[in-house]
Design brief:
This protein has about 170 residues and is an alpha/beta fold. The protein is built from four helices and seven strands. A seven-stranded mixed beta sheet has the order 1-7-6-2-5-4-3, with helices on one face. Strand 6 and strand 7 form a beta hairpin. Bound molecules: adenosine-5'-diphosphate and magnesium ion. The site of magnesium ion has 5 residues, from helix 2.
């Protein structure tokens, strides 16, 4: 699978890319986000989590201080085979599961990392999105999608995605 490189020019465009990514994710998966402060990791995550139907975009906020946020993608999907079998107003998710949004910016060492209880997240099939993932090495055999974001002048951001198939 070749890496995919995208340049966005607004936060809305980055959110839209997040939604596209969401449509290609199935648990278990680690989504490892790297890139400087303000490069758009949280913005992209808003698109991913809202795209999964697990929260509204405005309810996805940075876990810089809380460190971990947990969402549930729609349970309504469990019984339905397709979107039109759902009660009006509920969203369809192809993969009902927990969605973790983690920020390692303030995590200094492995002791702190352990205190996050990530092992629990990794003990059941989930979608685990990790900001500042470059700060630690993860020894876990789940499939991983790696996304690097960087400033590209003004509101432009270069987003390089590996581990996802954009051909189909
Ligand atoms: N193309 C873009 N993509 C993402 N964010 C952008 C873009 N252009 C401007 N921004 C702004 O940059 C900031 C990105 O912040 P955030 O997503 O919290 O970054 P990070 O989580 O990497 O620190 C937001 O204030 C957002 O509105
Ligand atoms: Mg952030």
């Amino acid at each position: 699978m070749p890496d995919k490189e995208i340049v966005t020019h607004s936060s809305e465009e980055t959110v839209a890319i997040g939604r596209e990514i969401a449509a290609k994710l199935s648990p278990p998966v680690l989504v490892l986000l790297s890139g400087d402060l303000g490069s758009g990791k949280t913005t992209l995550t808003k698109g991913i989590i809202s795209g999964l139907g697990a929260a509204r975009e405005e309810d996805v906020t940075s876990p810089t201080f809380t460190l971990v946020h947990v969402f549930q993608s729609p349970v309504a999907a469990r019984s339905a085979q397709s979107p039109d079998q759902l009660p009006a107003g509920s969203k369809w998710s192809p993969h009902p599961c927990k969605v973790y949004h983690v920020d390692l910016y303030r995590i200094e060492n492995f002791h702190d990392l352990e205190s996050l209880g990530l092992e629990d997240a990794l003990s059941e099939k989930a979608i685990v999105i990790i900001e500042w993932s470059e700060r630690f090495t993860f020894r876990n055999d789940w499939p991983r999608v790696e996304i690097h974001l960087e400033h590209a002048g003004g509101d432009a951001r270069r987003i390089v995605i590996s581990g996802l198939n954009f051909e189909k």
